[in-house]
C-alpha cells in the first residue's frame, strides 16, 4: 500500500567477464490470489561504471512511471566459485595454510565483513521424485531432469542438469564467502522443463551454526 517503497535489499552478482554486462530490473505490483501487475522496467549498463566506487543511480522506469534508486559497486572478488569435485582447494596443502592464516586470531579485525568461507560439495541425489511422464502407452516411463541450486543469502549457484535420471551425480564444489554466521545454506533440487518453469523436487536448509 505505497507508491514510494523502500526495500534496502543487497544482492551480490558475480561477473565472469571483465567488461561487465547488463542488469535487467522489473517492478511488479503483488496481487494476492491473481496474477501480479507489471509496473515498469529499467536496465543498468555495468560497462559505463567505474570500478571500486559506489554509484548512486536514479533510473526512470520504462513502460511505467516513477524511478528506482540503486547503489551499485563493482569490486574484485574471488569468493564465490564453482569447480569439479577433483579440484577441491581445501585438499591442497598450500591453499589450506593460506586459509588458516587468513582466519587466524591475529587477523580477526582485519576485515569485519569477511567472517569466513563455506565449501559445499554437491555429490549426488538418490531416489528423486519423477516429475515427467514420457509416452502414452504401456511403455510409458517416469523420469526427471534434475539440477541443484545452492543458495547462501543472495548468492545463488547452480549445477548442470542430469537428464532422465532419478539418481543424478553432479560432483561439483561450491565455495561461498560468509558475511553472517547466522546465515542458512539452502539446497534445492528442481526438474528442468524447457517449455515452462522448473518443477520443485525437494529442499534442505542447513543453518551455518549447525555445521
TrEMBL record:
It comes from the Eukaryota. Keywords: Calcium, Membrane, Metal-binding, Repeat, Transmembrane, Transmembrane helix. Residues 1-59, 93-211 form the C2 domain. It is a multi-pass membrane protein. GO terms for cellular component: synaptic vesicle membrane. SMART domains: C2. InterPro entries: C2_dom, C2_domain_sf. One of its GO terms (biological process) is regulation of neurotransmitter secretion. GO terms for molecular function: calcium ion binding. Belongs to the MCTP family. This is MCTP1 protein. It comes from Piaya cayana. The lineage of its organism: Eukaryota, Metazoa, Chordata, Craniata, Vertebrata. The gene is Mctp1.
Amino acid at each position: 500500500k505505497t507508491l514510494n517503497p523502500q526495500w534496502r535489499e543487497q544482492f551480490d552478482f558475480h561477473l565472469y567477464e571483465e567488461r561487465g554486462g547488463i542488469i535487467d530490473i522489473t517492478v511488479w505490483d503483488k496481487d494476492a490470489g491473481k496474477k501480479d501487475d507489471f509496473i515498469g522496467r529499467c536496465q543498468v549498463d555495468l560497462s559505463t561504471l567505474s570500478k571500486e566506487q559506489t554509484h548512486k543511480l536514479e533510473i526512470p522506469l520504462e513502460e511505467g512511471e516513477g524511478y528506482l534508486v540503486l547503489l551499485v559497486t563493482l569490486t574484485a572478488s574471488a569468493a564465490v566459485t564453482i569447480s569439479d569435485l577433483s579440484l577441491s582447494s581445501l585438499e591442497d596443502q598450500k591453499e589450506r595454510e593460506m586459509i588458516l592464516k587468513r582466519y587466524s586470531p591475529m587477523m580477526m579485525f582485519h576485515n569485519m565483513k569477511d567472517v569466513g568461507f563455506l565449501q559445499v560439495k554437491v555429490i549426488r541425489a538418490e531416489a528423486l521424485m519423477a516429475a515427467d511422464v514420457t509416452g502414452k502407452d504401456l511403455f510409458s516411463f517416469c523420469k526427471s531432469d534434475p539440477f541443484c541450486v545452492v543458495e547462501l543469502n543472495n548468492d545463488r549457484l547452480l549445477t548442470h542438469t542430469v537428464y532422465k535420471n532419478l539418481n543424478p551425480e553432479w560432483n561439483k564444489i561450491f565455495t561461498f564467502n560468509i558475511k553472517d554466521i547466522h546465515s542458512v545454506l539452502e539446497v534445492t533440487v528442481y526438474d528442468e522443463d524447457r517449455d515452462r518453469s522448473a518443477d520443485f523436487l525437494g529442499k534442505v536448509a542447513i543453518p551455518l551454526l549447525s555445521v
